[in-house]
Each structure stands twice: as structure tokens, then as C-alpha cells.
Specification:
By secondary structure, the chain is α/β, with parallel strands linked by helices. Helices cover 35% and strands 24% of the residues. β12 and β13 form a beta hairpin. Bound molecules: S-adenosylmethionine.
Length: 293
């Protein structure tokens, strides 16, 4: 297809060994994952155009040769913790949705915490999603929540999955073939590349505690949320006292993740002017949601 390597407006499609065709005027990229799975990975024109419209500042060019918009340099710096290394590995993204996340989630939430289906129901409900809404799924991993959120904003909505890990995003797009209202972008949570008030809702699950600067990321999430929009977070929880406090601290040390105190995120949301804050603590996990005034 002639479109490869051609500049379309301000959107430059980089020539790549894996790029082989196009759909609806945009190129198709065959990725290692998609070859393994026998699938074709592509970005649809509506998703790309809508995603582009949210960017600020607009980059001079964007690499799409891997099937997602890549706004990070190849060797982007993230904290060098064991958890971050696992997120960038080639193995964890493959087993993440079916095994890794349900298992570690259960250990963190405890026996009485919600199932994965319960988490998805919680997010949809707390974000108060409607057809046509534009949603940010920050630290989307392999798109396990991104795809579900897309079902709640259909028709006419858009869910943008952002993650820093190329292997997680490769898995995400390989699994998102039948969701034209989903777009993926490789970016840093601590400097989100979107215009103010771009999103009706923001979801950031199981990630804030692994960011180098969670407060910068929280500021960006609130900045890109429109007034009246909802934010939903799943973060770590360190019990205040007893055996739980000791175990919580040990988990933090072993994993390199921050263990947030019971009031830390709640107070951070309140200090930033958010209202209608709801919090649900279960085991070493806490769910929070809030509205931007
Ligand atoms: C545990 S996964 C969460 C995936 C999904 N949200 C969930 O709840 O299952 C955490 C994700 O955060 C991403 N991540 C870590 N630091 C990041 C950063 N600074 N910017 C964007 N993504 C980041 C990792 O690559 C990983 O995919």
C-alpha cells in the first residue's frame, strides 16, 4: 500500500518492517503478537482522528508503526522496580488478564473483596458512563478494563488506553480488534499529552502506587478531566496497625510499590477540590471515586 511512510496532515506514519496494509485509509501493522495469534492489528480512522484531537501540544510527528500512537522515546525512564520490570517483560502481558491480575488482585483484596467482574461493574457505576462519553484508562496494561469501558460508551464514545509499556500495549491492541471506539497511546502518566478537560471520566486501576511521582500523575488526571466528570482509582492500602501494617510494609518493600495510608489518597483528592468522594477499603487495596467540581 502506498500510504506507508506518507505524511497525512500532521500525522506521520513511519515506514516500518511490520507495516503491510491499511484499513479505511489508515495503515495496518502486523505485530509479533498478532502474528503469533494469527490476527491483524490496526488502528481505525475514527479512533485515530478522535485521539489526535485530544492531544495538546500536537506532536510534529507520531510513530504508529506498532499499532498505537507512541509518544515516548524508546528508552523511556520509569522507576527501576521489580514490578515495573515485570510490566515491561514479554511474559507478564500474555498471562496478565487471565492469571496474573485475578490472582494478585485476590491476594491484595482478600477473600471478601470484589471479583474481577465486580471491579468492572464498580468502575462503570462509579464513572457514571453514558453512550458518547470520552474516557481515559490510564495505565491500561493489556486493555483489560479499556475494552469493558468501551461497551459502556458505545455508540459514539471513545476510550483511550494509555500505558508506558510497549509489551503491554502490544497485547492490548492484539486483543482489541473488534472495538473501533478504542485507541491506545504510549505515554507517561506523569506528563499526560492531552488538553485540559478532554475526558468525561478517568480510570486508573492498580497503577498509581507504582508511579515514580503519583501526585504529578493525579494532578494530570484531574487536569484532563472535565468539570463534573468522574475519576475512579484502585490503589494500594497499608493498614494502620497490627500484623496488617507489618505485612503491608513488607509488600511495599518487596515489590517496590508505594503502600498508601487509609486517608492519603482521599485527602489528596479533597485537597485538589474534588467532591462526592467515595472510598471502599478491602485488604491491601482501596477503591476511590470522586467528581471534579
Ligand atoms: C498492574 S498494571 C494495571 C493494568 C490495569 N489498569 C488493571 O487494573 O489491571 C499497571 C500498568 O501501569 C503501567 N505504568 C507504570 N508506570 C507508568 C507510567 N509512568 N505511565 C504510564 N503507565 C505506567 C505499567 O506498564 C502497567 O501496564
Amino acid at each position: 500500500m502506498k500510504i506507508l511512510g506518507r505524511s497525512i496532515g500532521r500525522f506521520a506514519v513511519r515506514p516500518g518492517a511490520h507495516s503491510t496494509g491499511r484499513v479505511s485509509g489508515w495503515h495496518i501493522s502486523h505485530l509479533p503478537f498478532s502474528r503469533l495469534l494469527g490476527k491483524t492489528v490496526y488502528m481505525t480512522e475514527p479512533a485515530v482522528n478522535r485521539l489526535r484531537a485530544l492531544l495538546d501540544p500536537m506532536p510534529a510527528s507520531m510513530d504508529t508503526s506498532h499499532g498505537y500512537l507512541d509518544l515516548l522515546e524508546a528508552r523511556h525512564e520509569v522507576p527501576d522496580t521489580i514490578t515495573q520490570r515485570l510490566m515491561r517483560s514479554s511474559v507478564v502481558p500474555v498471562i496478565y488478564e487471565r492469571a496474573w491480575r485475578p490472582l494478585l488482585g485476590r491476594l491484595a483484596k482478600g477473600l471478601t473483596g470484589p471479583s474481577m467482574a465486580g471491579e468492572r461493574q464498580y468502575v462503570r457505576g462509579q464513572l457514571r458512563l453514558k453512550p458518547g462519553h470520552t474516557v481515559l484508562d490510564l495505565a491500561c496494561g493489556p486493555g483489560n478494563f479499556t475494552r469493558d469501558l468501551a461497551g459502556a460508551v458505545r455508540p459514539g464514545g471513545l476510550v483511550v488506553g494509555v500505558d508506558a509499556s510497549p509489551t503491554m500495549l502490544a497485547r492490548a491492541i492484539a486483543d482489541t480488534l473488534d472495538h473501533p471506539e478504542v485507541g491506545y497511546l504510549r505515554g507517561d502518566a506523569e506528563r499526560l499529552p492531552f488538553a485540559d478537560a478532554s475526558f468525561d471520566a478517568v480510570c486508573c486501576f492498580a497503577a498509581l502506587h507504582m508511579f515514580g511521582d503519583p501526585w504529578a500523575a493525579l494532578d494530570h488526571m484531574i487536569r484532563v478531566l472535565r468539570p463534573g466528570g468522574r475519576i475512579a482509582l484502585l490503589v494500594s492500602h497499608r493498614p494502620e496497625s497490627g500484623l496488617g501494617a507489618a505485612i503491608g510494609s513488607a509488600i511495599g518493600t518487596a515489590s517496590g510499590q508505594r503502600m498508601f495510608g487509609q486517608n492519603e489518597i482521599h485527602d489528596a483528592l479533597a485537597q485538589r477540590g474534588l467532591t462526592d468522594i467515595r472510598q471502599y477499603i478491602t485488604g491491601f487495596a482501596q477503591f476511590l471515586s470522586a467528581s471534579k467540581a
